[in-house]
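Risk register update: the risk that structure generation would not scale has been downgraded. Supporting records follow, first protein first.
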Amino acid sequence: MQARVAPYSVTSRPTNTEAKVHRRAEGKGCALRAGAAPFVVIQNLDDPREHGTDLEGRLRSASQRRTRRVMVALCALLSWSGVTACGSAPTASSESDPVPAPGTSGLPSGTVAVSATAATPSTSSVPPKAVAPKPGRVLVVGDSVAFSVAASVLAASPNGSALGISELTSKAVIACTLARWATKARAVDGKVSDVPVCTTWPQMWQPELATHPDTSLLIIGNPGAQELLSPDGQWVRPCDAGYSDRYRVDLRDAMAMLKASSGRVAVTTAGYWRPPPSRALPGVDYKSFDPHTDCLNKVIREVAAEAGVPVLDMGAWICPSPDSCRLTEGSVMLRPDGIHYDGPGGPIAMQWLLSQLPD
């Protein structure tokens, strides 16, 4: 049973839209198809200021073309007012149809009634959003940790099929942290590298995003040890204002770009850098980078919360605490150098990431 819509009439001080409809509907009979819907009063035909005295003659002289123009205007107004169903306009053959007798519709004498559906929102015609296959076609982007995970998965099975992935593509770049404002990086051994390619990740991602992957993973494994040269000439790490403020903008843009073209998106946190003795550089205190790892993860979580992107806490998975980072899974070394998931560790890491994805 449809709810009754309160009568609506053009007043002596109409809005612009109402006035336009009032002028075009002058002397016209109107009808919308809506079954046995309640009525909405559009005009008072008894008002001599608007219609003169020979109302019936003016109604019968209306042309089919102008009647249709009136119906378009009426439909637009009714849609704006909450009316949802609109039928075809009267044709020329309806010129002989009499104006409804006063009182037959239950409305005040001298009104033209327009049937309409109740102004109740309907979602029955809106199809539900399709759910992307999980994981389906997967795009991996990010830094060298992302690169190591994707490369190891692809080396283990074609397209990552062993993990249920239908197609795996990687646009991750070694030594690139999404910082578009830095073209130079300094490693912990003091070596400086030019990294101009790291500023072009939007262009690198675009061709793959144009295919609308089912799942996009932004894997960030940078532990904060690498320094970047800021535009003002300072070497900075994640806890420094010159780094975190700029990086926040980069992350926000990256997540927005991925969300716009992917079925689902997730971002990871970074783990602490814990190399085995055989891979550790002499004189480097790796735990001294932990505060920067924490600062980086803080920015990731904050931006992800703003963007509505799920966070896969890979950092906590690999390092539940600073003093208890996981080295192996069974007999498999997860991070041979203490940071990258090279070899068999890559598929294990990917399997965990996929298991954490929301539907």
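Supporting record for the second protein:
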Amino acid sequence: MKRFICSLILLLFSSLLLQNLNAQSISKSDWIQTLDSVAILLPQKHKNLYFNKDSVYFRKGIERIKAGLNEESDRDVSTILKLQQLIASMGDSHTSIQMLKYLDKTNVFPLGLYDFKDGVFVMTTTKSNEVLTGKELVAINDISVDEVKNRMATLIGEQNSGMRKMILPQFIMFKQLTDFLGITDSSAVLVSYREKEGTIKEHRMVLEPFKKDNRSQVTYMNVLPALRYQKNLFADYFYPDSSMYVLQYNRCWNRELEDKYGNKELAKKYPSFEEWSHKIYGTLDSTKVNKIVFDLRFNGGGNSQPGSMLINGFSEYVLKNPDLTFYVILGRNTFSSGILNALEFKKYKNVVFVGESTAGSPNHYGEVRNMQVQPVGLGIDYSTAYFKRTDDTSNTLNPDVLIESTFDEWVNGKDPILEWIYAQ
């Protein structure tokens, strides 16, 4: 299952990005024709575009965008972002314009952020702005971080705390986007930050792209095991003194799926899920395990079927060891098929969900396809299926035990989630 956030990240770092749109590069008549086509094609192709808002709302939104085509100095980008806001307001986080490929990658804020329990911190910036490294971000141009997140949330379909925490680091770097949202309006950007002792100071940002030799980043005293394996599709490690077996499942993808649905040559570089499953079952056969930790905190989706088969296979070991307890770790990045796999554990009696609330919903639209709407050639992803896994209508999967990391815990390599599970 393709997903909105994953597509944003891929578009952001892809070397095959389309050329940036320039102001007034597309005629008004072409935009009108494209917008009219979106009004027709998106409802036709989407599984149920009007599940949250009706057709009158959507059509009026299209007409408002058309009426404003003469008002913007940067018409192409502003039209794309207005249309994205409209599509996002329909409520499906898997349906969106492929908007990041149209933004200027050279006109950026060099800020790598992470939203912790105790605030939003600058993890990476450039040497020209290194005074910000490791500091808590308080405001941009006197607009509070919370308000910045609220404005950015208008560009996403899922309105929950997990999604808001996820989008800030992804969106904040694009100045065209922050200009559009009224966060910035010139090349001068004043950042307010908090020192460790609590003093709030200001810094005028130097706007420049990241390069290999100009980075300033937080120094990690120790690295969390979860971060150590974050780039792997999946990994496992065992704590013998507590009989705790950790299965870190970062993406619902593997060699077998890539070979079947993707590039056969690329598939050779991917790890085999079948081999990983056999290793896991072998460990459970040969080793006393009282706790299975299924870590989905970084899992943004893919194909849920292999994970489902693995999870269903645990039933044999539950029969042998009725005291076996599952701890499912959730996070802001748990989305789409990652959530579907998390829900598979609800069939077991001894299961505890721990961590953060997820960005995605337990019930959601997905199975994403894409189209290019002419004459502009506007790329739009849209959902073709609906997945209902629970009668709960919540727009997030909440943990039974909420545990969030602080900045100091993160950089010192402490994982309060695993530490809590370890102590049980």
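Residues 105 and 174 are 7 Å apart (CA to CA). On this basis the risk owner (M.S.) recommends closing the item.
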